[in-house]
Every structure is written in structure tokens, then in C-alpha cells.
Amino acid sequence: MPNSPDSTLFHLWFPNIFGYKGGIQVYTEFFFRALQSLYPQSRYDVFLKHDVQTKVDIPYLPQTQFHFAGMWSLKLRTLLFAAQIISQGFQKRPDLIIATHLNFTVAAYWLKRLTGIPYWTVAHGIEAWDIQNPAIKTALHHADLILAVSSYTRDRLLAEQNLNPNKISLLPNTFDANRFKPSEKPVYLLKQYGLKPNQPVILTVARLANIERYKGYDQVLKALPKIRQTIPDIRYIIVGKGSDRSRIEQLIEQLSLQDCVTLAGFVPDEQLCDYYNLCDVFAMPSKREGFGIVYLEALACGKPVLAGNQDGAMDALFHGKLGSLINPDDVEAIAQTIIQILQGTYPNTLMYDPEGLRQKAIDVFGFEQFTQTLASFVNKKFNRSKN
Asked: Which domain holds residue 141?
């Protein structure tokens, strides 16, 4: 084992970072950037299951070697990706393997058994809860470190898998504070959606997939008739695309909300900040969120945030210090809280201080804090190896 991280060979096993940008992918990109900024002299082999090539929008060190499996059909991809990571592990004997998806730990476990190579993994949300696969369970018990993105995920892993608490540490999600900043409501979006500058807007940003109805947009829709009684000109905008859209449209029609709900569909990353700044409250009362980077992005834009109190969103809102945590099944409470927030009477006054809210989010979840926390784990690992 090398004397310091700067002489390390890292093998990084990622789902993807250059294509689709879901929560795991965004986290993985930040993780990759942080690790390379900390240890620019290290060597990196990066294995990407679903990507086919790099893109210029993600910088990387010149000594980084990428290995892609995304050009293969889905049927073959898992098998070929596994062959890549195992064969390269045997050949190059990295000093540390880091996998940002739990499914990859099975291969890491067998490499460790056969070669002694240590491995870390990252636990995000749904994939880490109620694990039934015995191979993944075994791999988790033999991991050298599990990084959980939220205390909620950590606590569930500990309770469900009977893991050693010393094996799991927290490395919460982070965000790009340079991309997300408070500003006036964008004029082009006001015009696009026929909104008045002072018209109250609720926003949700979520993938509209059948399997992700837990995000809570249904509950906000059901709360809207109650909200409209007090705030008649309210507008609710949902950003995101997916297979659940037609069902949502039917629900909007059933609730007679066609005149106050807008399904904005897919929005390019470069416009997301504008949508956050268009709203007066960001609401996503989810029930099965591992963390929720969108909460941080909204907070960075200085927006009041409402989230569920039964999942990783509790971490994202710093257990209520940065926003409102509500029972995601209580439509009445969701309605009353949104009304309170929009009327300026919610008791957490920080929610009405955009710059203060943004700064607190940066202090707790900013990229610098993320990088420092990651450095503490890596340095501890290699300091131990010297003893």
C-alpha cells in the first residue's frame, strides 16, 4: 500500500457521468471532481457502465484512463462491465476500488477475497433499502467503508443489514453554488407561462416516472384546491418528463386544475436555475428520497422549501433548519404550510432571507465541505496503511 493518496491507483466504478443526470450520476460527478482535485498526482482508471465517451463539460486529469461499456446492448452490458472491472482489477491491482452504486460491490467483494484489494461503496437511497440480494448483503459486510448520502439511508442500512456502525460514514450530497444563485424572476419565463411578476408560483422538479410517484407531486396537486381558496392566482409548475405524465394530466383534469398547473416537461440544465428563481416556494413532499439534490439547488437560489419528513429530505433540509418538513401523506398540512409560506407567516424566518438561506446551504452542503469530508476519509485510510 502506498504511503499517501498522491501515489495511489484508484479504480472508480461508476454507472455513468457523461450522459443521463439522475441523482446518483450528479453525486458521482461531484465525487469524481472532488477526488481528482484532492489528489492530482494519483492515477485513475474510471469504469463507466452506461457511458460511451467523455464530454468536454466534465474536466478530468490527463492521466485518467476511461473504460466504457455503454456501447454494448443492455443484455450484454452488465456481463461485459463485470468482466472489465474484474479483469482490470486482477491485472493492475489498484490500491482502492470505489463504487458509487451498491450493485457493483459484488464484483469488488470477489476481487478482495482473491487479491486483498480494499473497496468502498456509496449508498444513496432506494437501492440501499430493503436489500434482499444475499450477494450484495455479503459484499456490504466486507466493504472497507460505506459512504451514505444521508443519515436516513445510514440508519436504515444499519437497522436492516446489521452492519458495523464504524463501517458507515456520511458524505451528503452537494451542489454547484456557481450555477444556482438568487435572482429576479426571469422575464422570458413570465412571458412564456403568462405569469404576472408578483403571481405566486409553486415549483417541483422531478422525473415523472411511474416508479417515482413517491416524489409527492400528486399530494401538491391534491392540496391545490385548498390553497386556491386563500390564494386564487396560485400557479403550480412541474418540471420533468416521464411515463407518468398522462396519469398526472388526468389527475389535473379530475381536480379541475387545468388553469393553474403547468407541466413544463424537460428543461435543459442551463435553464434550471431560472425555474427555481421563477418560483416562490419549492415543494416536493416525497416519501422515498435518498437525499434530493433539487432541494439544495432551490435553497441555493434562496427559495423556501417544503419536503417530506419520512426520508432523506430530512438531511437535505438540515432537519428542519433550512425548510419545512411535512408528513407527505397529509394533504391538509401540505396545503396549510404552503399557504403559510406564501403569506410570509411561516415561523422559520430564515426561509425569507434568500442570501442567508443560500449561505447556510453552502456552509453545510457546499462543494468545499463535501471535498474536505471526502479528504478526511481518504487520508485516514492511507494514514492507517502506514502504521
From this structure: 5-174+366-386
Q: How many residues does the chain have?
A: 387
User: 206, 212 in Cβ contact below 8 A?
Assistant: yes
Of 83-87, 326-330, 372-376, 382-386, minimum mean pLDDT range? 382-386
For 282-325, give the DSSP string: EEE--SS-S--HHHHHHHHTT--EEEESSSTHHHHTGGGTSSEE
Domain with residue 70: its CATH number is 3.40.50.2000
Q: How far, rounded to the nearest angstrom, does the alpha carbon of residue 281 sit from its chain's CA centroid?
A: 20
Give the model's confidence band at 212: pLDDT under 50 very low, under 70 low, under 90 confident, else very high. Answer: confident
pLDDT for position 382: 86
CA quadruple 326, 30, 140, 39: dihedral positive or negative? negative
One-letter identity of residue 302: G
Rama region for 32: left / alpha / beta (φ>0; ψ in -120 to 50; rest): alpha
Q: Backbone dihedral region of 292: left (phi > 0), alpha (psi from -120 to 50 degrees) or beta?
A: left
6 confidence band (pLDDT: 50, 70, 90): low
Q: Taking the model in full, what pTM does it have?
A: 0.93
Total number of domains constituting the chain: 2
Q: What is the spatial distance between Cα 97 and Cα 44, in angstroms, rounded to a whole number? A: 10
Are residues 140 and 208 both part of a single domain?
A: no
110 within 8 A of 84, measured Cβ to Cβ: no
How would you label 5-16 residue by residue, b for 16+ Cβ within 10 Å and e otherwise?
A: beebebbbbbbb
